């Protein structure tokens, strides 16, 4: 049985959002499953001494244009959210709580968070907005809030960040297939080729 | 008549090398020509406060793997050169000298430099190696050397760097089609789509 595809993402990454919209279908076409990993990109950036794309004044204007264009190229709805980027630990802790019982439901929560932030402008870092989203998703809002305040799930996310850095992750989306790392939504074609024919 | 495609590159950029191997054919398929711009990426990096990809310890290993894989994906011969990266002002000054009389010959020189460095390991920053390459290309080696020491062509390259930064260039390859900027060899599909159907 072929090994699952590892998909690392931060809920604040527009390129990871676009990838989240195609990766399951691509994997399924090649008989693979996807292991979703919610992480905090800030931790990976710190480990790699990097800065967010939009921090560089000259790059910011280009990046905003490319986010939207890359979404259109993939046929994915996209509205540049404000504020951007945002801290996403609360959504990520809920992800890991769901993942313990049911990884597919956690992946559905991830897609729901991505779409809320990047297509509807739902501010995931705002506790009230995130509780409302949790309710729409079928969770008990107060229970979701209790999860993101719980030391156990803070620790679980911390562990996920450390595991990602240890696996060489320094950006998002970061996809690993059979040990081969691919960084960026724009590596879709190469991932597809790898899945179809193996190493090239 | 549709406007030319502007293609900005540094001879030390592996992704720009890969792009140099497909951009003329892609443009021709869509009735376009290509304006080649040899620049020094270090100047653009400085303006944007960026660092080369391989400067980041965690990114370096990935980058070296991705250079070679991206070349294979495009069917372009590639052998990671050492040393890397290198200063490329001498090859770039010869480029601008040729461009004044014949832009197509300058583009041919650019392709020749790229292939020499990235497929045959010719060290472009070494004056003797570059003189030999100039001779193979049909130039008089000593004349080429005189060009890269000439204040006129130093100034011409400086002007090209400044014009690139003013045009928003902060990396290589950087491609501008009808005012739309595309950064990276991995934007080939989007460029192709733009050329085929216009804005999307």
From TrEMBL, chains A, B:
Keywords: Isomerase. InterPro entries: DSBA-like_thioredoxin_dom (IPR001853), GST_Kappa/NadH (IPR051924), HCCAis_GSTk (IPR014440), NahD-like (IPR044087), Thioredoxin-like_sf (IPR036249). GO terms for molecular function: 2-hydroxychromene-2-carboxylate isomerase activity; glutathione peroxidase activity; glutathione transferase activity. One of its GO terms (biological process) is glutathione metabolic process. Its EC number is 5.99.1.4. Residues 5-193 form the DSBA-like thioredoxin domain. The active site is at 13 (nucleophile). PANTHER family: GLUTATHIONE S-TRANSFERASE KAPPA, GLUTATHIONE S-TRANSFERASE KAPPA 1. Belongs to the GST superfamily. NadH family. This is 2-hydroxychromene-2-carboxylate isomerase. It comes from Caldimonas brevitalea. The lineage of its organism: Bacteria, Pseudomonadati, Pseudomonadota, Betaproteobacteria, Burkholderiales.
């Amino acid at each position: 049985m072929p090994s699952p595809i590892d998909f690392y993402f931060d809920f604040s990454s527009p390129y990871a959002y676009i990838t989240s919209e195609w990766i399951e279908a691509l994997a399924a076409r090649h008989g693979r499953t996807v292991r979703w990993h919610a992480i905090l990109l800030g931790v990976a950036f710190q480990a790699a001494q990097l800065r967010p794309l939009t921090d560089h004044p000259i790059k910011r204007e280009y990046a905003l244009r490319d986010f939207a264009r890359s979404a259109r190229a993939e046929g994915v709805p996209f509205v540049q959210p404000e504020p951007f980027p945002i801290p996403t630990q609360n959504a990520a802790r809920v992800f890991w709580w769901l993942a313990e019982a049911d990884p597919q439901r956690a992946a559905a929560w991830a897609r729901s968070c991505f779409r809320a932030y990047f297509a509807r402008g739902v501010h995931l870092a705002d506790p009230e907005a995130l509780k409302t989203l949790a309710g729409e998703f079928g969770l008990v809002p107060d229970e979701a809030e209790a999860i993101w305040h719980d030391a156990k799930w803070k620790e679980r996310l911390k562990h996920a960040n450390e595991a990602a850095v240890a696996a060489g992750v320094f950006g998002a989306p970061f996809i690993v297939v059979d040990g081969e790392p691919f960084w960026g939504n724009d590596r879709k074609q190469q991932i597809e080729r790898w899945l179809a024919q193996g190493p090239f």
